[in-house]
Amino acid sequence: MNIMAASTAASAATLKLDYMSPQQIASQSPAWWQGVLGVVGFERLPAIGEVRVPIAACMTPSLGANGLCEVWRVAGVRVHLSSGETLQSRVRYRYCDDLLFGSVMVGEQDDADEARALLQATDSAYREIFDVLNRTGHRHLIRIWNYLPEINRETGGDERYRHFNSARQLAFRNSGRATTGAVPAASALGSPAGSPISIHFLAARIPPQMIENPRQTSAYHYPPKFGRHSPIFSRACVWGEPGCAKLFISGTASIVGHDTIHLGDVAAQTRETMVNIGALLDEANRVVGSGSYSAARLNLKVYVRRPPDLPAIKAALSRCLSPATQVLYLQADVCREDLLVEIEAVG
Ligand code: 3EB
Question: Residue 173 pLDDT more than 60?
Answer without folding.
Answer: yes
